[in-house]
Each structure stands twice: as C-alpha cells, then as structure tokens.
Design brief:
Helices cover 29% and strands 26% of the residues. By secondary structure, it is of the alpha/beta class. The chain is globular, with a radius of gyration of 19 Å. The chain binds adenosine-5'-triphosphate. InterPro entries: AAA+_ATPase (IPR003593), ABC_transporter-like_ATP-bd (IPR003439), Metal_Ion_Import_ABC (IPR050153), P-loop_NTPase (IPR027417).
C-alpha cells in the first residue's frame, strides 16, 4: 500500500449493497466508492429504507455485498477471518441483544473479548483499556450501576465505551442517537467527534440527524436514489447533493444556513 494511503482504515471499490433474492435482487445502492481515514468522523444519511443499516452491515462483514470490494486497513474484508476483523472494527448496532443485567463495567469489559483467553480472564492491560474507555466517555461514576438502571443517553455512552475498549481503528454505529433528546443527540455526536480527534480512531455512523452531522462530520455519505454521494459537507452542499433528499413540498435544504427547513 502506498505511504499516503496508509491511514485509510476503510475503503470501498464499486460496492453494490442489497439483498440477493430468488424473486430478484433488491439493490439499495450501487457504485459506493468511499475512503475513510484515521481520525475522521463520517455519517451515513438517507431517508427511511434507503439502506443505511444494510450498508453498515455490509461494511462490517455481517452480510455479503452484491458486488464490489471492501478493504479494512488495506485488507480485503472477504478474506479477513472474524477473529482478526474484531480487532479492526467495533460495532454498535441498534438491535443488539445485550443483557442489561450486566453492570456498566461488565458490559464495557465485553469489548475486550477479541483479546482475552477462552475463559475470558482480563489481564492488567485489559483492565487499563476498560478504565481508559470509561474515562474517555466520562462514565466512571456509574461503572457499578446495572445497565437497566441507566437512561437511554447513559446507556448509549456505555455502548460507545465498550467499542472504545475493543480498541479498533474503526468504530461503526447504527443510529447512536435514537430515543435521545436534542441536547443528548448533540452531546453524543459531539462526543464521537472529540473521540476521533483525541484517539485517532475513525468513526462511521448512520443517522437521521442531518443538521448535526453537517456541523460535526468530516465527511458524509448520502444514500439517495440507489446511489451513494460521498464527500466533505461543503462539497456536497456546493453540488446540491441535499436538494431532493426529501419530498420538496414539505422540507427544503437552505444552502445559506446549511440546514433543512420546513416550508
Ligand atoms: N434481511 C433483509 N432481507 C431483505 N430485505 C431487507 C432485509 N433487511 C432490510 N431489508 C430491506 O432493505 C431496505 C433498506 O433497509 P435498511 O434497514 O438498510 O434501511 P435504513 O436506511 O437503515 O432505514 P431506517 O432509516 O428506517 O432505519 C428496506 O426496504 C428493508 O425492507
């Protein structure tokens, strides 16, 4: 790999995302060509059903692409063993079945699974990583609480801490701000932005918070009309990428304020 590309943690080439079906393939996005570097915060946006979750699952190897390639830190995703992959990508999915009976500390410790031995014994290094993750998201004070005692906002921070404890170059989150109020939506996305800059990790997340993403992200991936538009917020605004994202009779994109407005 060329030296100038050595900090690319995720790259796709002609990726086609969707579901193969006997009755005919469902193609959600074609020609997805993206590259995400260390320290970048990137949001995937698009209307309900555009394929955001499907894309994230494809990028993390949960489902197969219909066509094209995904490269994780320069290695083909299709050729990467699951145990190696878990040292490159941490995933925070909305439908994850996690026991809320665990304490905060126990749940964050699950992030160390790719590194622990078969009985899951934590070493000093694991404990250090766990404590550091708790510190980074500022939840040391609730470390002994049970997860079912937490608010949605606190629980989201715990999931982010678990991903940080996994200590991978790339973190992928599906809708990390669902169920949060406006303050906590902004808080969590700002936290993700800070984490990319402090830790050098790349963070990719799907979100409906387009106005916030426009202010906080280094790059955006817009899924629209089965195509993928990728670039810096200013570039995408300049090329009118947001123009027809929603039916125009109700919402329009105001270029001057770089935000969506209700008509
Ligand atoms: N396992 C599956 N098999 C076939 N089709 C699926 C499957 N999962 C999702 N779909 C379809 O793929 C399309 C995109 O779904 P997806 O969940 O990726 O969209 P999304 O952009 O994340 O939506 P939302 O914003 O509502 O969460 C939808 O039409 C959905 O019905």
């Amino acid at each position: 790999m060329k030296a100038e590309n050595s900090n690319i943690v995720l790259r796709t080439e002609g990726l086609k995302v969707g579901y193969r079906k006997k009755s005919g393939d469902l193609i959600l996005a074609s020609g997805v060509n993206i590259d995400i570097k260390s320290g970048e915060l990137v949001a995937v946006i698009g209307v309900n059903g555009a394929g955001k979750s499907t894309l994230l699952k494809t990028l993390s190897g949960i489902i197969q692409s219909v066509d094209g390639q995904v490269f994780i830190s320069g290695n083909k995703l299709s050729k990467t063993e699951p145990d190696k992959l878990s040292k490159h990508i941490s995933l925070v999915l909305t439908e994850q079945m996690l026991s809320k009976n665990l304490s905060v500390m126990e749940l964050v410790a699950l992030g160390r699974q790719p590194y622990t031995n078969w009985i899951g014994r934590l070493t000093k290094k694991d404990l250090k990583k766990i404590m550091h993750a708790l510190q980074l998201v500022n939840i040391e004070d609730i470390r002994d609480k049970k997860c079912h005692e937490l608010s949605d906002g606190q629980f989201q921070k715990v999931l982010i801490a678990r991903a940080l404890a996994q200590d991978t170059p790339l973190i992928i989150l599906d809708e990390p701000t669902t169920h949060l109020d406006l303050y906590h939506k902004a808080y969590v996305l700002k936290l993700l932005q800070q984490l990319t800059k402090e830790t050098g990790k790349a963070i990719l997340f799907a979100s409906h918070e387009i106005n916030l993403a426009l202010q906080l992200c280094d790059k955006l991936l817009i899924l629209k009309d089965r195509k993928a538009l990728f670039g810096k917020p200013a570039e995408l605004i300049e090329t009118d990428a947001f123009k027809d994202l929603f039916p125009g009779h109700l919402i329009h994109f105001d270029k001057e304020s770089s935000s969506f407005k209700i008509k």
